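Narrative summary of target 7.
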Amino acid sequence: MLTTVDQGIFSVSNFAVGVAVAHISGIVGLGGYSLAYALWLAFQALHRGLITDPMAIENDVRHPEAPRLITAGLASELSLGLVATALFGAVGVALLLSGQHLFGVSLVALAPWLPVLLAQDYWRWIAFMQGRPGRAVANDVVFDSVQALLLVAMVLAGLRSPAVAICAWGAGAAAGAVLGLRQFGIGPSLRGGWAKMRHRWPVGRWLSANGVTAWGSSQSYAVLSAAILGPVGVGGLRAAQTLVGGVALVLLQSGSSLGLPEASRAFHDRGWAGLRSVTRLITTAAVAAVGLVALVVFVEGGPLLRFLYGPRFARYYPAAAVIAAGTVVTALALGAILTLKATRQSRALFVISTVQMAVTAAAIGALTPVWGTTGAAVGMTTGSVVGTTALVAAQLRLSRRALAGAPRADTVPAARLAVAPGPHGARGPLLADEALWLVPGAPAVAEATRGER
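Modeled conformation, tokenized:
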């Protein structure tokens, strides 16, 4: 429940800021803010794939040297954040010089805040991994409070550009990042950050690649629509998406935040039986809850857009309805994603997300010029259908092979897995009687169970 509350605070605050920007800066300003936010989500996916997901899979917070590993993880986040600052700043300046003033200013305003945005998100994930979601709730409350106070103060001072909202957002993240240092008793450092990412590179490279390509499937609409429809189209499509995602993403992200540590722990302790139990429960809950959100959007989407964003946004109801259907399809894949991550099948995730991204981009590129924002929404949903189908098929294939116990030339004998020490010195979490023959990724699983690399 605390995890769900935290995700509610996190996602509803993002939704509220989008609504505020729409009223402060109009549909054009929302378009500029949306592009910056979409690109931030790309780096958020990258840091989770390179840093936090490998930490959850390897159960770093249960390791005897957990404080050292958590400190090294923070150093990785700050190092990655500095690279992101330079990259976003350079792209923003290039856009300014090319005449794209609104988009350029938004990226330049976001660039300095990226290290603290990554750090604040890192503390939330550490809290989930430790089974202390109350700390994540407290951190997000501080984050949102500072963000809201600064946004109101700057608007009252007459500042109404999207850059104002971005700066308030970054300052809130800075407050959360500092609070996290006190919550977990860790000091800021850059030492060992790149070394930790290299250490986890065999797992992290595929997880991060999957995260970025998954971002391409769900968020590339902002970049493609900006090129085809301009700021107005991006702003309208963002309103349609956040009408659905403001609540639905709370549920999906809650399932992911709670699900990956729990799925990894269940697989570690109870094997396939534990993993199936966690993933089925989370998928069923996510589909039921997201389906309810989609029903509300189908019935009252137009009036809600008009009420929340203004009369100009009501015409984006068809796009919102299509996106709602696609979000239900996405929820069906949650258990498959957790299964593939917990069993370290990150390469399969990357391949599937790459195909999904390519289908999504092609569909958006083909349909947006014809149907506008509704065409972009149809393109996004088409990618969701393709991706979910492939993910569920991969999960079923993996499960059948694991339970059938049919040896393959590229697998590791189950007995070898059974006697290997676990990541924290305990006897192997993979039992011989479960006959875990895990497709071509099995050698990686065997290596991962030998102990800390």
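The radius of gyration is 22 Å.
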